[in-house]
Amino acid sequence: MAARKSYSNTWKGVEQAAKRAGAKYSELVAAQWALEISWGKHTSGRHNYFGLKGQGSDCVTTEVINGETITITDGFLDFSDLGECVQYLVDRWYKDFESWKGVNHAVSRDAAAYELKTQGYATDPAYAEKLIRHMDEHAGAEA
After folding, report:
1. In a 3-state reduction of DSSP, which class is residue 100?
2. Which of 6, 7, 78, 115 has the fewest CB atoms nearer than 10 Å to its CB?
3. CA distance 65 to 123
């Protein structure tokens, strides 16, 4: 069995992991990483770089419900490393998964950002715009 590839907790490392996982828009995955966990500083769950919810670690999170911003405690998935977390995200949101059509089908990275929001990835009404801003400001960054 081959050893798992290790990725750095950086924009470039996330892009590399996303490309290997099959994301058409690896810079969008990196923008999610930057937005969701403050550039790799505040994971939710063990090695959870995208705020992916499920059984694992309980963490405090901010959500927008019915137009109101609230703070709740919710369960977040735990992963063994960055690569496993990126693969999970890409398999479920970028590729076709169960009855969902993956955002890899979008015609551009910006359209894919809007599809993430439309398909229910985030509750923040400005989520897509924030992702696009991160991509515009930081795509290709070494940070």
Report:
1. strand
2. 6
3. 7
- Give pTM, 2 decimals: 0.87
What the block records as the tokens of 100 is 């969902």
User: Do 110 and 24 form a contact (C-beta atoms < 8 A)?
Assistant: no
- Give the dihedral of Cα atoms 38, 74, 76, 94; nearest 10 deg: -70
pLDDT digits (tens, 9 = 90+) for 41-88: 888 889 999 989 888 888 787 878 888 888 878 789 999 999 999 999
- With tokens 């955002």, the residue in question is 103
Candidates 61, 63, 94; CA nearest to 77 is 61
Backbone φ, ψ for residue 65 (5° rounding): -120, 125
Contacts of 99 (CB under 8 A, 6+ apart): none
